[in-house]
Amino acid sequence: METKKGHHNGVILLALAGLAALGGGGYWLHRMDGQRLPEATALAASRNGGGDVLVETARAARTRLADEATAVGTLKSNESVVLRPETSGRINRIAFQDGERVKKGALLLTLDAGIQAAELQQAEANLSLARANQSRNEDLFRKKFISPQALDNTRAALRVQEAAVTLARARLDKMRIRAPFDGVVGIRNVSVGDYVREGEDLVNLEDTNTLKVDFRLPEAYLNRLRAGLDLEVMSDALPNERFSASLTALDPLVDVGGRSISCRALLPNGEGRLHPGMFVRVRLDFGANVDVLMIPEEAVVMDSPPFVFRIETHGERLTVKSTPVRLGQHRAGQVEILEGLESNAEVVISGHLKLQDGAIVRRQEA
Description:
Elongation Factor Tu (Ef-tu), domain 3, conserved putative lor/sdh protein from methanococcus maripaludis s2 fold, five-stranded mixed β-sheet, alpha+beta, six-stranded antiparallel β-barrel, 3 helices, 4 domains, 19 strands
């Protein structure tokens, strides 16, 4: 019994010794790994320049720019109308060719006016009878054969018949559609024999000798805009040509959504090289050069408000600071800084996504 009990105790002691050995080995392995990890991290950091963010920078510089504003606009006819009949009827004549230039008052279309012409003849006949009665009653009145009241009645009847003739003539004239101003007719939508209803579109008429140029500018230009200001108009359809126009009107209401003001200019177009509906680029020259502070557009983070990451120097260490800026005009990849930076300030132009205030950076070598 004692021999078996001693054997059992020996097994337990061997098991405990094995567990102690395993625990000690794990401890030393963990300690060695803990020593190697900081070393690996330090090595990676040294290869990465000590953890600095690599950025590309540029400096704010002052330059002389022409004092101007640019915008995009649309050309419109000086006068534009879609001709429509005021009464229903059947077309019996078309007196123009599509795209023809016509004068004010020119007859363009006529509707069948047989009934209106007959009504006019009837009204004229009644008017002739009323005039005869009036003349006869005036003679009788002078001879004291009729009373003043009878004479007044014939005068009233004469006026009624005169009004009836005017009305019948107006109805007949409504069957003839004329050009309300000089212009060019478009492409008609009807033919002779078509029955058209009141208000139906027949053809458009455009006055293109002068064109309107409608465009928008930021409200910051409001105090500098005035009627008579010259501007230059360019079209992608005629890339090598420049057209002169003159500012004629400003909308008194500033658009709340876009903080912009609607402008209109007039552009002479006697040669007909430009057409209504065309997209154009507009440049307004305010007539002076100004000294402005410019930085590359890619330096600006478009937020509310927009900002840049400005480089700050601390001995040999460089950090960044987010700096709100107020922007002005854009020119050839550069943007004007109205507030927020001083001349020669260094700003980040690439690598923004990795930055936050106080981040340590390193300039990218050229």
